[in-house]
Amino acid sequence: MNRRISVKKLVKYSALLALAFAAVGTLAACSASNSKSESGKSDEKKVTIEIATVGTTRPFSYDDEDGKLTGYEIEVLKEVFKGSDKYEINFNKTKWTSVFAGLDSDRFQIGANNISYSKERAGKYLYGNPYAKNPTVLVVRKGTDIKSLDDIGGKSTEVVQGTSTAKQLEDYNKEHPKKETKINYTDGTIQQILVNLNEGRADYKIFERISVDTIIKDQNLENLEVIELPSDQQPYVYPLFAQGQEELKTFVDKRIKKLYEDGTLEELSQKYFGGSYLPEAKDIK
C-alpha cells in the first residue's frame, strides 16, 4: 500500500536539504577565500625569479669559506625580495656571456654581476635602479710608463669577451689602427687577470675600483698601482632585467629605493666594500 508524504513532512525535508546545501556552499566559500595561512601570507605558489651571476667577482658575488654564495649584490637582492608574497629567488652561477644569453632566452629574469651601463645593453635589456657606485680605474705595475689611456698603444691586456672593457678597447683599436693595444681574450676571473698583471704577463688592466682594491688587498699584489680614469657618465652598478620584465623591474626599483632610504644599502656597502660606495640619491627613482 503506497503511503503519501504529508505536506508538513515534505516542507521539513526540503528545509533540511536547503540547510545542508547552504552549509556545503559556506565551507566551499571559506576554503576559496581562505587563501592566506594563519601567518597571514598567501598560500598560493610564488613566482620564482632566476638570477644569473658569475660568482667570482669579489666583493660583489663570490663563495664564502663555506662555499655559500654571498657578496654585496647577492645580499642586496636577498633584502629586495625579503618578505615578498609574490616572488622568491634562485641564484644561478654561470659564465659571463651566459648571463646575457640566459636573459635573451628568458632562462634568467635578472642579471647581477657588477654590470655597468652601456648603450648596447640598454637597447636589449631593462636597467633597474643603480645600487652601487664603482668608478673605472687603470691598473698597472709600479714603475711602468703607462700613466693614462693615452699610453696603452702597443701594450697588452687581458679581457673577457663581451664586457664593457672589451668593447672600449675594440673601439680604441678602430680609432688607433697604427698603434693598437694588444687584446688577449680570456675566460679567467678578474683575480687571475690581476695576478697575471702583477707577475708581468700583461701590461695593464681596466676594471672597476671596488673589485680591484679588494683583490689587491686580499691577494697582496704589491707590484700593482691604481689610476682612476675620467668618465663622461656615472660609473654605477645595476641589476639587469630581461625584456618583458617591466612589472618585476618596478617591484625591484621600489625596494632598492626603500633600502637606500632606510640605510640598508649603506650598511651592506660598509660591510662588503669597506666604505660608502652608493649612487647619488637623485639617481635612484
From TrEMBL:
Signal peptide as annotated in the record: 1-28
A Pfam match: SBP_bac_3
InterPro entries reported for this sequence: Solute-binding_3/MltF_N
Source species, domain of life: Bacteria
Keywords (A to Z) from UniProt: Signal
Residues in Solute-binding protein family 3/N-terminal domain copies: 48-276
Family matches, as PANTHER family: AMINO-ACID-BINDING PROTEIN YXEM-RELATED, MEMBRANE-BOUND LYTIC MUREIN TRANSGLYCOSYLASE F
Protein name, per record: ABC transporter, substrate-binding protein SP0148
Annotated organism of origin: Streptococcus gordonii (strain Challis / ATCC 35105 / BCRC 15272 / CH1 / DL1 / V288)
The organism's taxonomic lineage, starting at the top: Bacteria, Bacillati, Bacillota, Bacilli, Lactobacillales
